[in-house]
Amino acid sequence: MNWEAIYHIDDVPYAFPVRPDAVKVRIRAKRGDVRKANVLHSDRYVAYRNEMPQELELVASTASHDYFEGVIVTETKRIRYVFQLEDGEGNSVWFGELGASPNRDMAGVFNIPYVSPSEVHELPEWVYDAVVYQIFPDRFRNGDESNDPPGTEPWTPDASPSAQSYYGGDLAGITEKLPYLQELGINLLYLTPVFVSPSTHKYDTTDYLAIDPHFGDIGQLKALVDEAHMRGIRVMLDAVFNHSGNQFFAFRDVVEKGEASRYKEWFFAERFPVVESPVPNYVTFGNAIATMPKLNTANEELKQYLLDVAAYWIRETGIDGWRLDVANEVDRTFWRDFRRAVKSEKPDALIVGEIMHHSGPWLRGDQFDGVMNYMLRTAMVDFFAKTSIGVREFSGRLSMIRMMYTDAANAAMFNLIGSHDTERFMTMCERHGFGWGEEKAVKEKMMLAVFFQMIYPGIPQIYYGDEVGMRGGEDPECRRPMLWQEEQQDGELLAFYRKVIALRRQYAALRRGKVRVWLEEESLGVLGIVRDDGTQRVAALINNSPLEAVVSAGSPFGSGPSGFILDAMSGVRYPHEGRLQLSLPPYGCALLCEE
Ligand code: ARE
Ligand code: CA
């Protein structure tokens, strides 16, 4: 056994409360090393050696490591525990706070002195059932031509927008299309910024307390939220608190009054007077983007101002949460206070940060619920669109990402294949797909990725237009106006989206079930994933290869209650006697369910 690979700490993500009386523990070992993993635990104040060993389950594997997990239930909320690992050759090792040792006492013990209820990362129940649709408001639907900005361009979905183009989309348009979204099956909307701003994307806020007149007004936002709620759809807005726009009143004040401005501490002026050109002498978002002065969110006065903004929109319009822009560059104390402010205004509000990389520090339950899962997107792009990694590597990356976070954080991720900041997924499939221009295979790869989104833990995210086959490279190409003409939409793709979203809503195991890898058929390109919520078990099969795959494997359904297993994708029934044999078409998938 490789002792050096064994790892656990008594902290997130290796130990975290899942209920006030239960803590999940995880331990890592070298892949394939450990045949049996146990945790021995008791109350901290009872005499040693009275513990019962509790066996842990192998829950995830990367190329190099296996991860074992178990839930310790505690009546007293005070836990003392130590791990004991066994390999296949009868060797055993103890692992405690002093490290690994063949001698139990030399390994020491881990302690969870007290599980405070406030440490449990509680998610609103609805989050488990959510499927989110992202809208870039200027480009979704023009519902009111009277508010169009000057120079509004014609709504041509194959046009090439510039960074400054306006297309006239607005809140009225979104409200008008709620029936379409309801029929699609989504139940959460995320709108990129809607507050007053001089740009088309509105990430440079002029007024945090007013809707941009080109999008509508607060009455129209209220109407949108009310109508959405009536249709079972929640609404989240974009909080751009890392920076403001340079037209924001406080920044104008600093530019005008310099050091005498009472808002000078709200920003990071390098010297006074503050100048915006030729090079800004203050900190901005990104690299010297003068129109986006960075906000000093550690400043108490500014903090209160922004927390009031967050509460105001919840209170006045009933929105259900916030997506946080450039979330990893904002003061973390600010985010902790933000969470308190938002949840005290609306206890079941959802908070999702925008972070493109490892997000552990923000996902301990004290700041965000989840993040936009760009790490998962990269894995999906590599596996489905580029085929630059195989089944094992993909599966390993999924495991790695899950093992970075708590169960709650994993459930609240926005699992996206693309956004307003990335090339569209279909375009990536095309670009990396087939020299021989196989239109069909390109679409099938896209469908596989969407199927995967729907069977995986976390909130599947759909970027407007992906569902009808819109194409587009990086910003601004990925922000074309929505394709509404039915004859131009990809009806087959849209039908597929509706079908797999409906399946996610039909099978509770896909939303709340634990996730286990069932099959990693590297040579076939087949991945099998099981979801199980304790009452229902479903198994998803994905054939990420241009060839038909004949899968013959031990069934994940045990002996099974009936003689048949249903593939909910095709409607085909397979005989079931402990073994499953079925064939998947090229880039095909199956969702197997007990009947
Ligand atoms: C505009 C132009 C672009 C141009 C850019 C540079 O449209 O074509 O390249 O200017 O000057 C908003 C607008 C953008 C606009 C930008 C600046 O939507 O259209 O770009 O403002 O005016 C990092 C951050 C991440 C951030 C991305 C963009 O970590 O938070 O950069 N995303 C948010 C929003 C954006 C928004 C802003 C922030 C600013 O979602 O839409 O942009 O409010 C790697 C790095 C990431 C990096 C990423 C960039 O993955 O690791 O950290 O993300 O690249 O894609
Ligand atoms: Ca309009």
Labels describing this entry:
595 residues; alpha+beta; Immunoglobulin-like; TIM Barrel; Oligo-1,6-glucosidase, domain 2; 4 domains; 8-stranded parallel sheet; 6-stranded antiparallel sheet; binds acarbose derived pentasaccharide; binds calcium ion; O16G_dom_2
The structure class reads: alpha+beta
Beta-strand fraction estimate: 15-25%
How large, in whole angstroms, is the Cα Rg? 26 Å
User: Total domains, how many?
Assistant: 4
> Class of the largest domain in CATH?
Alpha Beta
How much helix, percentage-wise, in residues? Answer: 10-25%
Strand order of the largest sheet: 18-17-16-15-12-11-20-19
Mean pLDDT: 96
CATH architecture annotation of the largest domain: Alpha-Beta Barrel
Largest sheet: 8 strands, parallel
How many angstroms separate the termini?
Answer: 42 Å
Are there runs of 5+ residues with pLDDT below 50, and where? none
Please tally the helical runs, counting DSSP H or I stretches of 4 or more residues.
14
CATH topology of the largest domain: TIM Barrel
Q: What ions, cofactors and ligands are bound?
A: acarbose derived pentasaccharide, calcium ion
Indicate the overall shape: globular
Q: How many strand segments?
A: 28
